[in-house]
Prior knowledge:
Shape: globular
Radius of gyration: 18 Å
CATH class: Mainly Beta
Order of helices and strands: HEEEEEEEEEEH
Number of helices: 2
Low-confidence stretches: none
CATH superfamily: Jelly Rolls
Strand content: 35-45%
Helix content: 10-25%
Largest sheet: 6 strands, antiparallel
Number of domains: 1
Distance between the termini: 62 Å
Amino acid sequence: xxxxxxxxxxxxxxxxxxxxxxxxxxxxxxxxxxxxxxxxxxxxxxxxxxxxxxxxxxxxxxxxxxxxxxxxxxxxxxxxxxxxxxxxxxxxxxxxxxxxxxxxxxxxxxxxxxxxxxxxxxxxxxxxxxxxxxxxxxxxxxx
Length: 143
């Protein structure tokens, strides 16, 4: 396969949306647990979640339908996939298929990591919808 075939400029279809740029720091944080902050960025078929773990924070063991890829950017945490625990550091990646039990915990350090979900993680979509509805309601309420 040549580079030309990978970087083709000929459209084989119609764009489904306009592209956009996102400054992650402006995405409203979601905190399901103290010390665990999510900043989800939603595409059409993928969700990328920027996650900060404070020291001594745990994302308990759980499962979900969505496939998840975890990439550590800074710090470290212990990540468990179906009983296999590894200390992950910057550049380390974990792949979690649908319905596989997994969880993470920090010790004395922070961890900044990115989760990529496909399809987008349902619970984050539901939270985003509820937040948007509450914000819209607040903006429409008479002062």
